[in-house]
Amino acid sequence: MTAPFLSFLYFPSNHTSTHPIEDDDDYSSISSEEGTNLQSPTIYVAIITRRDGSVKTKYLNPSAVSQHNSIRLLRGRKRAFSASSLFTKKSTLQKKAKHLLLWSKQEEGVSTSLVDNNNNNHHHISAFEALPNEVMIRILMHVDSTDLTYLQQASRKLYTLCHDNHVWYHLFCDKFQRHDVFSHSHDYRKLYREALELHRRWHQGHSQVSYLSKVDSHKDSVYSMAWMMGHDGGMFASASRDRTIKVWQKQGTCMLTRSTPHTGSILSIATSRHIAVTGSSDTTCTVWRLPEWQVMYRFEDHEDSVLSAVILDDHVVATGSRDCTLRIWNAETGHVLHLLRGHREPINAIKRVDAQRLASASGDGTIRIWCIQTGECLHQLQGDIGGLSCLEVVPKGTKYCIWACGLQKNIQIWTLDQVITSKIINSGHTDVLRSIHYSAGRVVTAGYDKVIKVWDVHTAKCTLSFQSGHEGKIFSVLTNHTSIISAGHDRRIMVLDFAKGLSSELM
């Protein structure tokens, strides 16, 4: 009896269930012929400071938001139409749910029924409801949120089971690619709904804009920022031309200000759970012990400004310099493990690819992939967008992509596979791209044109463009699944918070 019943239930295909939220019912791509005509356009948002100092946002192309909503509505109708094929046509959701639970229309008339002695109303009980609760819950874990809405209206028992926290925990983790440990204190049905709301805000550019405290702000340009590990995306560090480091809560509180031993501007900062590293125009690099921010060691082997730094583990760091070299250091002794040569121009950015490889981007227009253990250059990728100013490593299934930005304002994307391929996309930026950061399926870019853009990594399409948030060039941008943080020449740090008012458990 179980086999024919299970064959009648709707189960998402393996293809659907393994995709992140972009494939959720409300936001899935349309695979029909009209899909190419229904791509959501870029939404442009102006950030405006009022005379009283408060900040508001304004859509520059509100028709794009309306078009986006129309696409969502059409997609929802297509999804509802496809789901309705599972049911015998009835006029109510409850009747649809009844047919989802019955094997066939013929068996509906002979379903077992119980009589409620209090009101003498007859209630159908399908074969599904006769299963043990544990089995029903396991099956419901494979039903999507739309069908759960139908099912919960069939009976009181199904209403209770469709609200089971384990069912929504499974749905929440599957749809949003989360790996949370189950907690009885969390309402996963609420978290699922709020995660959908967060995703909607990202799609439509709805964010709370704020600037961090002017009283505690840096006294000069902010060149670099980094998330503080272990704080759920709620704290970050900033480094400035004023030679100080500041640690901030995203809500605006400055938690710490640390003067540094650097005698020049701090051009780069990187953090892990236990150490931080800063690079300076004074040619030195400083390693800090966290959370005390105590100096552990200073490296002085570079011959010019240290433009970029990355922590490979709590014992090894790497730095890239204007002297055209990379160095891999022992963070505890200051010993140079590898001196990497090959670039002909300053090394503007370095990023870790995986446990074995390191990527560097240079003003000579090339990206080099290095072996961390040996210092050997594994690949040289020739760019076609001029000198490279920044790069980001983006996971793509079992592979990695490298997004690099250059002086010619475009973006070039390499896919690291057995055969390395690349493509160039027009960024839409009108000046040098200075910073790029990846998180949660999105890449964020910013630069000298004072514009922040958000990109979908699956399509390489720009979804959001924030204008006028800064009065000067943007030097650094950070993002995670709830916010974007930017800083630059105007000394201000701006926070775009997409999760304002939502549960802190989402963080």
TrEMBL record:
Gene3D superfamilies: 1.20.1280.50, YVTN repeat-like/Quinoprotein amine dehydrogenase. GO terms for cellular component: transcription factor TFIID complex. One of its GO terms (biological process) is transcription initiation at RNA polymerase II promoter. Residues 125-171 form the F-box domain. The keyword Membrane does not apply. One of its GO terms (molecular function) is RNA polymerase II general transcription initiation factor activity. WD repeats lie at residues 215-249, 299-339, 340-380, 426-465. CDD domains: WD40 (cd00200). Keywords: Repeat, WD repeat. The keyword Repeat applies. This is F-box domain-containing protein.
